Amino acid sequence: MSEQAKWVRLVRKSIPGLIVVAVFLGVVAIALFLKKRSDEKPPSERPPVNVVTKVIRPEASVLDTFEIVGRVEADRVVKVAAEVDGRVEEVLCLKGKAVRKGQPIVRLNTDILQAEFDRAQAQAQFDAGEYKHIADLHKKGAATATEENQFRTRAAVSKAAFDIAKTRLERATIVAPFDGTLDDVAPEIGTYLNCGDVVAVIVDMDPAKVVVDVPEGDVSFLKIGEEGKIFIKGRAENLVGEITYISKLIDRVANTTRVEISVDNRADLLWSGQIVDVHLLRRVLKDIILVPLEAVIPMEEGKKAVYVVEDGKAVRREVEIELNLSSKQCVCIRSGLKAGDKLIVKGLRFVSPGRTVREKCRNGPASQPATSQAATQPR
Predict the structure, then answer these.
(1) Is CATH 3.40.50.720 the classification given to domain 67-75+204-284?
(2) Which fold has domain 81-203?
(3) What is the pLDDT of residues 213-252, one digit of tens each?
(4) Of 72, 106, 145, 326, which alpha carbon lies 20 to 30 A from 357's?
(5) Residues 330, 299: Cα–Cα separation, whole Å
(6) CATH number of the domain at 51-61+286-370, out of 3.40.50.150, 2.40.420.20, 3.40.50.1370, 2.130.10.10?
(7) What's the predicted TM-score (pTM) here?
């Protein structure tokens, strides 16, 4: 038998043994793999995140207000002028002092005016007597109708001259035209004034006028007669005024409209040029959902989201916000939340969708009244 045939015969005899060995090694390998799998510990679940939640409860009624900067103006500012020529003889009031309507401020020298008055008075009395005498003669037929008419006219002219002289004499004393504060007194004693020269400036600050430039998008909510709250910077006192004027013209550069608020200023808390904060009411909203601003998460493309708790896990929800109703504390949710939802307001940093949470419910109302901020600059 050849060598080749011997090797073939030997291999054929060895195949069953090799198969047995291969099967044995396979069984051993499977056993070792299963043992290793059994020895490995299952991955541990992430611990729950501590969060604070609030139960969503719609607000029955919310005042939608906005804040804007205003400036105080006087209700009236009048420059009082001399109505006759003359030299200043007396200055009867000091600037900065309150004056009453009809109170003398400056008195001019009346020597010439008094003489003109006396002459006009005497002439008027004489002409009136002459006319009466001619009228009696006319009734008796001793004077003609033409003569009566001439004397009547002369008496009337004299009476008119007397009235002018009397008025000029009276107006030599310059008086306050209304109650107010004497902001300035121009002339000094001895100064000669011509008719029309400014003598004093009187400011009427009661009521005061608060002027605000309201953005175009907000002015449509305002109506004459509505209230406006005035907050004085650095003082505890707050005032309430009434809207008395809304301009029909819009400043096309700033896109604002002038609105005036009349404020009782008997306490003298406001002065012209003062800067104040004004709160105005847009509308009263019913059954709306307000959530803390810190609970809202900005997303891509300007979208917003919040996290709520469902079955012990965090669920992310996309929400729509009312842009015209927001504040530093809370925002209005138009869609995405409903009454009874448990909103996560604290602990959002470690929250992700599906993460188990351990919640602590915050007591109290679900939100705060909305007070939106309107800048003085155009939006």
Answers:
(1) no
(2) OB fold (Dihydrolipoamide Acetyltransferase, E2P) (2.40.50)
(3) 999 888 888 999 999 999 988 787 789 999 999 999 888 8
(4) 326
(5) 18
(6) 2.40.420.20
(7) 0.60
